[in-house]
Amino acid sequence: MAETKPKPKIQKEAVPIPKQKPEDRRNNFNEVALGYTEKQALAEANRCLQCPKPQCIQGCPVEIEIPAFIKLIREGKFEEAIKKLKDKNSLPAICGRVCPQEEQCQKFCIVGKVGEPVSIGRLERFVADWERAKGVKVSDNSSPKSKKVAIIGAGPAGLTAAADLSKQGHKVVIFEALHLPGGVLVYGIPEFRLPKSIVRAEVDYIEKLGVELKLGYLIGRTHTIPELLKERGFDAVFIGTGAGLPAFMNVPGENLGGIYSANEFLIRVNLMKSYAFPAYDTPIRIGKHVVVIGGGNVAMDSARSALRLGAEQVCIVYRRSREELPARKEEIENAEEEGILCKFLAAPTRFIGDEKGWVKAMECICMELGPPDESGRRRPVPVKGSEFVMDVDTVIVAIGRTPNPIIQSTTEGLAVTKWGTIVTDENGKTSIAGVYAGGDIVTGEATVISAMGAGKKAAKAIHQYLMKT
Ligand code: FAD
Ligand code: SF4
Known about the structure:
Strand order of the largest sheet: 3-2-1-4-16
Bound molecules: flavin-adenine dinucleotide, iron/sulfur cluster
């Protein structure tokens, strides 16, 4: 009788990641998750079954060879593990912290069928942090450059496209409107989830690959895309300008003082460091009762920032139920542990101001869930006569973001949708020869890794285009 191989014993629980205690972290902006130690990383890596047909890779938009880098961690070969990761992903310390792995690689992990999936993101973060502590190595990339590519926007899409094109041997220049590179990673996601020093370190790596960064360049004003192509010697352009315009609800009283868009609020807190006021001179007004409208990552980040800025009570008001919350699962749990309250199945109908024009109350209406809408989620339907009023001092509106139209309005012949997003084929090619686009400017608000995946695909297509011209 043929001998059957014993089945490997599966360790069902993932190794938990050490975190600051909720009662401590709600009072500071330091990073919440502290990262695995070497021992914890080895124990977690040992949970991976090294599947002959790994399902996890199909869930990764940048196609990281997940079992291979985990095997290298298991063998203690951390330098080789980070090299393997960086073959596909130039921003591993960022992705290890903010990617919604539960919806991507970890969703497909075989171990997840019997227990908790392998913590691929935490392992990614571990090796990226290990490398940063040792000093990042960059292989020589100084071969003569023939073709010149302009990248517009230094968010995850632009940075990824830039890194890949530079590795292919092209001269790459990133034009970024802000005074800092990183896009949402620096102006949106707060320090306690993604320290800015981590973003800086990963951007430094991309600069070391030979990418030139020009900050404070608003394309559409400083130069236009036709100028870059016809007068400034660029052979191709990649647009990765994101979706940075806040959406509003258009309900009465939305212009009252004390009502912020999440964009303005988070830019003040993160980019202009109002949490360190008066050392940084950006004040922010936070009352006792803060309400955040929305249920995505932006709403969670706004609520948790407001709590850290001294609000007594922070409540998220979301028009669907808890099951439909679109934020990362881990961040919902973190927010709840910190004491953020949630009012589900409710939406504002008007804001009520005091005699000085500041918001003092918010009227809401209760919702119930009807049949699914075009997004596949059940549509919230107002319940007649169910209005109620909440006392509020500060309101943060986090209901979505749309593209800034400046590029579209200064680039003749660029096809756009009715939502202002740029039309491309599956490889990021736009309606103009030599012009590619990817990330939130094409899909609308999405995720860091989907923007990176789009940057990667476009870089491949741009390289093929440049090799033919
Ligand atoms: P962006 O990151 O928006 O970068 C675009 C860049 O282009 C910006 O730097 C902008 O200044 C620049 N730019 C714009 N116009 C011009 C111009 N005309 N000229 C020059 N430069 C220009 N996703 C996750 O996966 N996980 C999370 O936890 C998560 N949390 C989030 C929290 C917040 C608060 C927000 C707002 C978003 C979050 N997201 C998260 C979504 C994610 O950050 C975005 O999907 C991603 O950053 C999109 O990348 P991008 O490169 O397309 O655009
Ligand atoms: Fe490891 Fe899970 Fe990928 Fe299998 S599916 S190789 S167990 S991470």
